[in-house]
Design brief:
alpha+beta, globular, 10 strands, about 300 residues, 5-stranded antiparallel sheet
Length: about 300
Amino acid sequence: MDIYQWLNSKDVAAHLQEAGRKLDAAEMAYIVYQNEAAPLKQKVTVCEEIVGTEPDCELRKYSNTERWASTHEFLGRLVEVQRKKLCLFEEPGRCLFYPKNSRRAGGAGTAAGGWLWTGPDLAAFSSVDCCVGYLRREYGAGDSDEDAYDRFEIGKLRVGHPDEPEGWENVLTLNADFEAVSVEAGGLSEEEKEIDSLLSDWFLALSCPFGAGDIVVDATVPGAAPFVFDRLKFWGSKELAAHGSDFDPGRAERLDAGIARQNERGSWDSSYTVAMGYELAAESQNPIRDHGCAYYDPYGACNNYLNLER
């Protein structure tokens, strides 16, 4: 299986492929889960392919996740949950489906980060198919790139239930081809909710091709603002030195001891996948004249380093 094509970043994919980094079934599952572009049904198919072709392994426990002795078993349950969510959402009953949000990539008036979300259309339908048909007619053929939408959200309201139970979210997200890329639907058990969210909280440490001072962007954000890469949170002194990041050599021993403790306890989580660096201040209007407009983001200029590209 060519798992590298599922990475959001072409640069990271090429780097890992050239390095010959082999990924186990759990790591493959994480990469497929994190993919931003693929339709949900395609992700389900690839998860089933992983189970059928890749050796089984442990799904490691991290700070906010549970350990699974078998990644194959976990993926089987994850596939079941995704299919159940689609069925729950598409089930008509006494429900209304409506265009909740549309996202335009690029163009005039685009918000910082390259996205512009527009609010709900004044329309409601008795089925998902009717709602998708409406979106095709209204947004399927823009006259220019500025009219192009790359995401659509369909909401669902149950008639006679003005106050949904806590956690009862009903949103179907479609891509530009009107294929489902994600779905949230009320009615899952607590166990199913944990399975559904596990990989969003998981942690994966891979090598990356970026060094301190590189200008990078988040490949998953249309029109994303570039920033100056500095470091990753899970790097020890050896990795920091290899990637040209500035650090105090006197703190190297303590830094490495902290990394070792994290590894021993398995206390990593998704908050450690962020990439830190220098960003352009949002209020700066003219970066050519405003020389003091950059600031350091210690919480992550990009949520996942695996999404970075030069």
